[in-house]
Specification:
single chain; 454 residues; alpha+beta; 12 helices
Length: 454
């Protein structure tokens, strides 16, 4: 028994160790996107809306089929006409009793009616077919909208992941710069003690070091906020710590701007969703027009009558065909048709504006990418120059040829060059992913392996 307990304990500890090890593994971009698609509430909400639209489509199609109702009716009355008719329906009419009493003042009568009723629409002026068409169009719109939300969450997750990587790299850069400044302060204190420089030079270095401490603290806060933003997109606790894998290079960008814009007008799921909604809106005029056309239906009813619930002392049935046409409704049908026409016109204007907005978004993402590439090229060259400048200033300071302010200026120039290069490099990635997203190119297909795509 003791050996068994020991074995179980070892297995439990081993499982906990494995779980802890898995939790400490660096988070890759693929895993971040996968978790976001699984846990982000926006994805769940969009999926539920699409499922609801599917049920509404089935609901609309169900109106083509017969409607069958079963009901139990209780009637207690002393109305002369109703009493006479209900006694007949119950099969309990007695002519002798009828002539021996006052038919104008009958005794109250209790009647239970068990009724099954069928209603089958035959022709509704096109209303049913239009409603079914609308529900199908809205189903397509919601499915496209759900797909767009998944892409939006993917883009937001990629953005948050990249921003966290950028914030962490910026923080590391500042910490190293702070270490360099601290070494320079120590060097300045040593030189001041030996009489090579005045104390004012040391004070300048210490002030600069304090400034670097402030920058490091600000960068730490920015990194924590970026980490919380990534957790938010992933649907996780915002205080969860994440170690990141090395950010992968952005996907390739081929073709020119006109091609990306043309693809966007075809691929954008949210734009196509709006077009499906426009299709549903156009059918509303057909629904309104049905008010001018006749409606035809068939009704069948079978009833059981008795003095007790669900009794069957007597029964009867009937079948009716009903046709009706609207002659006058105070102009409400005409107003409904005109309102549908104007609403459709407004949808068409919205779609046109939507398309222009898509063109602008793609153009902006494209220009941002081109600008980021140019800035990165310039920043890379400036970074090499700043590193060499700092090296020269350090040597001149050690030789007593430069003042501390010159060395600190060189440090500042190097730090600024490093920041420019860092920001431009990450902006290239962000602009690339933004171009993909704004053009409707699937980021899910781009980032996740094809076998994982649902």
């Amino acid at each position: 028994m003791r050996a068994l307990r020991h074995t179980v304990l070892v297995l439990m500890l081993g499982g906990l160790s494995t779980a802890a090890g898995a939790a400490d593994l660096p988070l890759g971009l693929e895993d971040a996107v996968r978790q976001a698609l699984e846990n982000n509430p926006a994805v769940h909400a969009a999926t539920a809306r699409a499922q609801a639209a599917g049920e509404r489509t089935r609901q609309a199609g169900g109106f083509r089929f017969p409607k069958i109702d079963l009901m139990e009716v209780y009637n207690y009355t002393n109305n002369p006409a109703e009493t006479f008719a209900l006694k007949l329906n119950q099969g309990r009419f007695d002519f002798g009793e009828f002539v021996s009493t006052d038919p104008n003042r009958p005794d109250p009568l209790t009647t239970w009616i068990t009724r099954i009723e069928l209603l089958q629409p035959i022709y509704t002026g096109g209303k049913l077919s239009a409603r079914i068409g609308q529900s199908k169009a809205m189903l397509g719109a919601e499915e496209l909208s759900a797909a767009h939300v998944r892409e939006q969450v993917t883009f937001d997750t990629v953005t948050a992941y990249t921003n966290l990587a950028k914030a962490r790299e910026y923080l590391d850069l500042l910490r190293k710069a702070r270490e360099t400044t601290a070494r320079h302060v120590e060097l300045a204190e040593k030189y001041a003690a030996e009489g090579f420089i005045v104390d004012a030079e040391v004070l300048k270095a210490k002030v600069y070091l304090a400034h670097m401490d402030e920058l490091v603290e600000q960068a730490e806060n920015g990194a924590r906020l970026a980490e919380a933003a990534l957790n938010f997109q992933m649907g996780a606790d915002q205080t969860t710590h994440r170690e990141l894998e090395r950010i992968p290079p952005p996907p390739a960008v081929n073709g020119d701007l006109d091609l990306w814009i043309a693809d966007a007008l075809v691929r954008r799921r949210d734009l196509e969703s709006a077009r499906r909604q426009l299709e549903a809106g156009r059918l509303e005029e057909k629904v309104a027009t049905s008010g001018y056309l006749p409606e035809v239906g068939v009704m069948a009813r079978y009833e059981w009558y008795d003095r007790v619930a669900f009794g069957n002392n007597n029964r009867s049935g009937s079948v009716m065909a009903v046709a009706k046409i609207n002659l006058l409704r105070g102009g409400s049908d005409k107003a409904a048709r005109a309102a549908a026409r104007y609403q459709t016109a407004s949808f068409e204007s919205d779609i046109h504006r939507f398309e222009e907005g898509v063109r602008l978004q793609v153009q902006q993402a494209w220009q941002d990418l081109m600008t980021s590439r140019a800035r990165h090229t310039t920043a890379t060259a400036a970074l090499e120059s700043a590193r060499e400048s700092l090296r020269v200033r350090e040597e001149r300071f050690k030789q007593g040829l430069d003042k501390m302010i010159d060395l600190l200026d060189a440090e500042t120039q190097l730090r600024e060059a490093q920041v420019r290069e860092l920001v431009a490099r990450h902006d290239i990635a962000l602009a690339t992913y933004r171009l993909y997203f704004s053009s409707g190119t699937s980021l899910i297909d781009t980032i996740l392996p094809s076998e994982e795509i649902q």
